[in-house]
């Protein structure tokens, strides 16, 4: 019998459009002889759209308005064998939707509540990974209330890290709200921006020199495997939103031209991180690599990475011999796997 799959896309985060693009690819690739797929677009207000509106949203690449309250619609998710929550960022990749599906008793692709929530928050990720012995840059946390009551305290925390440093909303993706702060004069504006998007903000030291950026895919549940390592190259100062989503701004190299022992370490660290964070199904684990010193630090873990045909995660597994269609099929199988 064909499996009935509910594919969720869009959502409330700054990565709404990216999610709809990924969903178009996945929808086209899930083999029709095995799966009966129903896409449901989620509007920017978090409402679940009916079929005609969903079709339009997938075509237009955006669902600004419309739809029903989630709690009215989740009952209609009953009867599906599995859900593919192809959602990025808050209210989708952060354990919220995963909690709803867990309560509804429906298996789903990807990490559960714990792995999703911890991996979404860059501070929690750093804390958990530090206890697993994974190398990372120095960092400090600041919360919004501190920025409104004790600005000097927050500035002092930044000074401890030294400049340049990165200021980021703790729970976002696609580089939204991230600033590279070159000196104290740029700090306040960066903090204002990050706090306009999140209650929690992470300040991060930079590596000694400009790092190379390596990414690796992890696939599986409690016996995960790692893909070959990929590298991103770009001319901009860092991998910002424009560089990520403007055609031709970044080059992908698979496999990354790095020494074999570095690739081995990347893959081992990625698997350790995946387990430490209780991830499931899939994750893309991103690293900074300093060529001169050989130093490797883990940057972040994405539990629902970009998933178009040309996105890094599927490309990494394609290089390992697993085509896009086989990959999405495998992800649904993993969602249904007894654990
Ligand atoms: P997102 O989850 O939005 O992708 P990241 O933490 O990956 O956020 O940061 C986006 C990009 O910013 C990275 O890919 C890298 O180019 C740059 N960057 C972030 N943090 C640092 C850092 N500590 N040192 C050097 N570059 C950084
Ligand atoms: Mg991210
Ligand atoms: Mg990133």
Describe this structure in words.
The protein is of the alpha+beta class and 339 residues long. It folds into three domains: 3-108, Rossmann fold (3-Layer(aba) Sandwich), CATH 3.40.50; 119-135 and 210-336, ATP-grasp fold, B domain (D-amino Acid Aminotransferase, Chain A, domain 1); 139-205, ATP-grasp fold, A domain (Dna Ligase, domain 1, 2-Layer Sandwich), CATH 3.30.1490.20. The protein has helices at 16-29, 51-60, 70-73, 96-104, 113-120, 122-131, 144-149, 151-161, 187-197, 241-245, 260-276, 312-319, 324-336, and strands at residues 3-10, 35-42, 82-85, 139-143, 165-169, 179-181, 200-205, 212-220, 225-234, 250-253, 281-289, 296-302. The strands form three sheets. Strands 10-9-8-11-12 form a five-stranded antiparallel β-sheet. A four-stranded antiparallel β-sheet has the order 4-7-5-6. Strand 11 and strand 12 form a beta hairpin. It is globular and about 60 Å long. The protein starts with a strand and ends with a helix. Bound molecules: adenosine-5'-diphosphate and magnesium ion (MG) (2 copies). One magnesium ion (MG) binds next to strand 12.
